[in-house]
Amino acid sequence: MAILAPSLLSANFLHLKEELDSIEQAKATWIHLDVMDGHFAPDLFLGPKLIRDIRMGTSLFLDTHLMVDNPERFVDCLAEAGSDALTFHWEATTKPAYLIKMIRAQNKKVGIAINPETPVSCIAPFLGELDLVLVMAISPGRAGSPFQIEAHQKVDELLQLRQQGHSKFLISVDGGIGTKEIALLKNKADIFVSGSGFFSAMDRLAFVKSVQY
Ligand code: DX5
Ligand code: ZN
């Protein structure tokens, strides 16, 4: 069964606790937290203090997506703040193997994200060591942009590599996810990250249910 991970980037932060409760009421089990440094991604968003507060406000799985340069600077503090998974960008580091070890040392799930222009082959050597691969279907930080259809092909490639390598990583797709994209990726993606789609849905429970085929 796939997972719908609402991305807090589109939440109303004046009512953060109500938004967290609403995610729980919609029966989502994961929350996606975007961390942006104003450099790798153009905007600034979420630091350890806020993640610690969010951790206090929910028991759901916190799926933290680091859209930051040199992510090794933030692994320990974001892990200690209460993240359950830490996903860094392949484009943001020269030391992916070291980062994987660092995140494992914190006993957290490990993911690598790839931008729309990055081919799956770049991360192929690491697939056996990952809990998840995050395929960006939009440019980092551009919530609300349309889904780039090339992501679909990457998901197919990852499915093939997972089968060939007998690997266990989950395939997550992030950006521009709506009902149409969920239908397209049915039985392929394991995690659907959705910001504007989830938070603007008339019926959040039904939106979460739409991935639970
Ligand atoms: C954007 C973030 C996404 C974002 C998705 O770079 O990684 O998680 O919140 O937002 P939507 O679903 O609105 O495209
Ligand atoms: Zn994200």
What tags apply to this protein structure?
single chain; about 210 residues; alpha/beta; 9-stranded mixed beta sheet; 8 helices; binds D-xylitol-5-phosphate; binds zinc ion
Low-pLDDT runs of 5+ residues are: none
Q: Mean of residue pLDDT?
A: 97
Shape: globular
| SS element count, helices | 8
Are any ligands bound, and if so which?
D-xylitol-5-phosphate, zinc ion
Structural class, judged by helices and strands? alpha/beta
Describe this structure in words.
This protein has a nine-stranded mixed β-sheet with strand order 1-9-8-7-6-5-4-2-3. It has helices spanning 16-25, 48-57, 75-80, 96-105, 150-164, 179-184, 196-199, 204-209; strands at 3-6, 30-37, 44-45, 61-67, 85-89, 109-114, 132-136, 170-174, 191-194. The mean pLDDT is 97. It is 31% helix and 22% strand. The radius of gyration is 16 Å and the shape is globular. The chain is an alpha/beta fold. The longest helix is centred in the last third of the chain and has 15 residues, at 150-164. Helix 6 links the parallel strand 8 and strand 9.
Please provide a brief summary of the model.
The protein has helices at 16-25, 48-57, 75-80, 96-105, 150-164, 179-184, 196-199, 204-209, and strands at residues 3-6, 30-37, 44-45, 61-67, 85-89, 109-114, 132-136, 170-174, 191-194.
